[in-house]
Design a protein that fits this description.
mainly beta, Beta-galactosidase, Chain A, domain 5, eight-stranded antiparallel sheet
Length: 292
C-alpha cells in the first residue's frame, strides 16, 4: 500500500516508491501526491528531483498549490463557462480510491458545490504510477454520470524542475500552429526548439504524442509521451509577470511547464455514461545514458 502521511499545512499526502529494472540505470523512484487537488508535488529518480514546487507555495485550501502537477478540470484557463481559471478540480480534496506501493488512484465526484459552479454530474479519477524504470505515468479519466451531455477542457499542468529556464529547450513542436496567450493571437512555430528569452505562454494545437525537454544546465532529458490529449501547452511567465505572483516571485527561473492538454483543439464531449481517458508518461534520462 502507499504511505499516507501529513504534509505541508496539515494536508494529507500519499507517497509512492518503485525500484529500477536496470534499463536506464536511473535507480529508485519516488513520488508524492497531495489529496488537495490530487496534486503531484514530487517525482524523483535516483535522488534527482524532477518536479518543481514553488518555495512560496501556499498549502491552504481552497488555494491551489503553486507547482507540481495541478489537474485543470473542467476547464483549462478560460476555455469554458467557469469564472475560475483552470476550473475547480485543483482546489478540491480528492478521495484516495485505491493504492499500492507504486500507484494510487484519486477520485473526485460532483456534489452540491461543484453543481453550483458547473451543472453536470461526473466522476473524475487520476491514477499516478511509478514504473519499474522510474518513469512517471498519470492517467486522467472522466465519466459522465449525468443524464445529459457534458463538455470540458482539461490539462495536467506539469511544472518540471530545471537548473535555469535559460538552459531549457522543448523539442518537437516545429511547424505547428499555436495560440499565443501572451499576444492573444495564432502563430506558427518555425523554430527547431522552444527556448525562453522572455514570457512564453503557448497552446499548441494537435501536438505530437512525444515531446522532449532538455536542460543543458544538468545534462538532463525528459521524454514526455501523451495519449488522449490533443494539445500541449508550454509556459514560463518570466520575471515581469512572476513578480506579481505572490506564491512564485523570484523563483520563476526554476521551472518549465510542459502540459498535456485538451484545450485549443476543442473540448471533450461526453454523452451520458460515456467516459474519456487521457494519459502522460514521462521518462527521465541523462545525456549519454540513452537519450537521443
Amino acid at each position: 500500500m502507499a504511505t499516507v502521511t501529513t504534509g505541508e499545512g496539515g494536508l494529507q499526502k500519499v507517497s509512492l516508491t518503485a525500484g529500477s529494472d536496470g534499463s536506464s540505470g536511473a535507480g529508485a523512484a519516488t513520488a508524492e501526491v497531495y489529496r488537495h487537488g490530487a496534486t503531484l508535488t514530487g517525482w524523483s529518480v535516483g535522488g534527482q528531483q524532477l518536479i518543481f514546487v514553488s518555495p512560496k507555495a501556499v498549502f491552504q485550501p481552497p488555494k491551489a498549490i503553486r507547482g507540481g502537477v495541478p489537474v485543470c478540470f473542467p476547464q483549462f484557463g478560460n476555455l469554458g463557462p467557469l469564472q475560475a481559471q483552470h476550473g475547480f478540480a485543483r482546489n478540491r480534496e480528492w478521495q484516495l480510491a485505491s493504492s499500492s506501493s507504486s500507484s494510487a488512484t484519486f477520485a473526485l465526484e460532483s456534489d452540491e458545490q461543484t453543481l453550483a459552479l458547473w451543472p453536470h454530474a461526473f466522476r473524475a479519477e487520476l491514477t499516478v504510477s511509478l514504473q519499474p524504470s522510474g518513469a512517471l505515468q498519470q492517467v486522467l479519466r472522466v465519466t459522465n454520470t449525468d443524464g445529459k451531455p457534458l463538455e470540458f477542457t482539461c490539462a495536467l499542468h506539469t511544472y518540471f524542475k530545471v537548473s535555469d529556464i535559460a538552459n531549457v529547450a522543448v523539442v518537437g513542436l516545429k511547424g505547428l500552429q499555436y495560440f499565443d496567450n501572451a499576444a492573444g493571437a495564432l502563430a506558427t512555430d518555425e523554430a527547431e526548439a522552444v527556448t525562453f528569452q522572455g514570457e512564453v505562454d503557448r497552446a499548441y494545437l494537435g501536438a505530437p504524442d512525444t515531446l522532449k525537454v532538455t536542460d543543458s544546465g544538468r545534462d538532463a532529458v525528459l521524454m514526455v509521451h501523451k495519449r488522449g490529449f490533443r494539445d500541449a501547452v508550454v509556459w514560463n511567465p518570466a520575471e515581469a509577470k512572476a513578480t506579481g505572483m505572490a506564491d512564485l516571485g523570484e523563483h520563476w527561473r526554476g521551472f518549465v511547464c510542459l502540459e498535456v492538454a485538451q484545450a485549443r483543439s476543442g473540448p471533450v464531449v461526453l454523452q451520458p455514461r460515456e467516459a474519456w481517458e487521457g494519459s502522460t508518461t514521462v521518462e527521465y534520462d541523462t545525456v549519454g545514458e540513452g537519450a537521443d
